[in-house]
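Please review the protein record below. Tell me whether the encoded fold seems credible here:
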Amino acid sequence: MLIDIEGELIPRAQARWPDAVVRDELDNSLLDELPTIQFLQVPAGGDDGLKVARMLIDMNVYAPTRAEAFRLAIEVHDWITRVVRGSTTSTLVTGLIRCLSLPAERPYENKALRRVGGTYEIFCHPVS
C-alpha cells in the first residue's frame, strides 16, 4: 500500500509550527503567508514489493529574509531527522531517515522572499 507522505508530514509540521503555513503546493498569495514550509515528494524512490517504501522528500522554507529561512529550515531539519525518524502515527511507521542534501539557499524568482531547502530519504510503511 502506498502512503501519501506529504499528507502525513503536513499536519504534524503544522501542529509543530502553528505560526507558519505548511503545505505541498504554493499559491499566489505566498508573500502574505510567510513563513511557509513546503513538503514535496520527489518522483523517485521505490518499495520492496511487500511493505517498506523509500521516499524522497524536498523540504523548502520560504521567509522574508535569508536568516529567517535558514533558522526555520534548520528547525525543520532537526524535526525530520530526530522526531519523525522512528516515529509511529495511527497510519504510518517511519524508520530510517537520511538527509541527502542539507538545508541550503535555493534560487527563487521572487526577490521579496528567500527559500532554503533540503532533501530527505524516508523509509516507512503503513501501520499493520
Remarks:
- The two ends are 10 Å apart (CA to CA).
- The mean pLDDT is 94.
